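Annual report, structural modelling task.

Input specification for the fe (ii) ion complex:
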Amino acid sequence: MQPPAITLIKQEHQALTTVLRALRQSVKRVGKSGQPPDFDGLRAMLFYLDEMPARVHHANESELLFPRIYERCPALRPVLDRLQAEHSRGESAVRELEHALTGWQIMGNERREAFELLLHAYSEDYLGHMEVEESYVLPVAMDYLSPADWSELGAAFTRQRGALAESIARGHRELFERIASNQSLS
Ligand SMILES: [Fe+2]
Ligand SMILES: [Fe+2]
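The model returned the following structure:
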């Protein structure tokens, strides 16, 4: 049976993938229609991508899961170092996207393509990051970590999430539901 810690990570990857796709589709639709976009809606999706990984997902991986994998399987160190570095870069990448979005809003359509290119690069990088975790790191972790490791990790994930105010966690869930169901975000 799959450990709950892995289930949680995969569910969050699914949510992040859904939001990345929704964001790219929204931008593509705007490109075809020639109408000004719902900037608040696009900004809300960037907000989710920034806050959910930074506060929840990356913290579970970087502070809890990856160190345990280092211990049990040192050969994975180069891959884990790369993934950690990508977590650290994620925050500034979202800042750049927000800046490019503001550029589009203030300066007009001539800045749309710059935002779209940046978004394309960001989402390809992030999808690739999750793919490495799911297809390579998690299967290796399943082989090397013991049932006791997984149960400690599951408890530690829950503790770390418990430290996040329930109102913030609920806000993330509600925002995701609105994005996933294509409701107005502004
Ligand atoms: Fe990650
Ligand atoms: Fe991840």
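The two ends are 41 Å apart (CA to CA).
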